[in-house]
Amino acid sequence: MPDATAPLRFEYAREPNVSAELDRKLRELISSCFDQPHGRGHFRGLLADAHEDLAQQGLEYTVLLGEPAVYASSGYRPLDVSICRFDPETQSFEHGVLAVALHKTLTEKPWPAGPVDLRGPLF
Q1: How buried is residue 71: exposed, middle or buried, by Cβ count under 10 Å (0-12/13-18/19+)?
Q2: What's the rounded mean pLDDT across residues 88-103?
Q3: Which stretch of DSSP H or E encloses residue 64?
Q4: Are 32 and 1 in contact (CB under 8 A)?
Q5: According to the model, what pLDDT value does residue 40 have?
Q6: Is residue 88 reached through a cis peptide bond, with omega within 30 degrees of 0 on the bond before it?
Q7: CA angle 86, 78, 95 (to 5 degrees)
Q8: How far is 92 from 113, CA to CA, in rounded Å?
Q9: What would the mean pLDDT of 111-123 be, rounded to a whole number?
Q10: CA nearest to 77, candidates 52, 50, 111, 43
Q11: Coil, strand or helix at 45
Q12: How far apart are CA 3 and CA 51, in angstroms?
């Protein structure tokens, strides 16, 4: 189990650059977050740390795709506007409301009105 008092550092690692050792550590971390009962609350804590880091970088909002009931306790709300996104099944860009699209404001600035454009590189 990682030391809960150690300062966190976020670093983006592209999949081709993930070593076998880092892959093992990530799988261990993810398992500890979702395994019951000892993982209870860890994922929420990781999200809170990520939100703090993103806000310090000047980001105002965060968007994720997930189950609303799971992420509501971390402040995520449904993004009930039209979203332009890539659909891997049809291999095309589509527009419409996506039930699993959620957003969270990281500042006092309210979420902007209007459609959301998620066209961009896939990762």
Answers
A1: buried
A2: 90
A3: strand 61-65
A4: yes
A5: 63
A6: no
A7: 30
A8: 25
A9: 80
A10: 111
A11: helix
A12: 20
Burial 1-24 (b: 16+ CB within 10 A, else e): eeeeeeeeeeeeeeeeeeeeeeee
Per-residue pLDDT, averaged over 60-69, amounts to 91
Residue range 24-48, pLDDT digits in tens: 888 887 777 655 555 667 778 888 9
pLDDT reported for residue 57: 93
Q: How far apart are CA 85 and CA 104, in angstroms?
A: 19
Tokens of 19: 């070593």
CA separation for the pair 83, 33 (Å, rounded)? 30
pTM of the model: 0.65
pLDDT at 122 over 80: no
What is the CA 53 to chain-centroid distance, rounded? 13
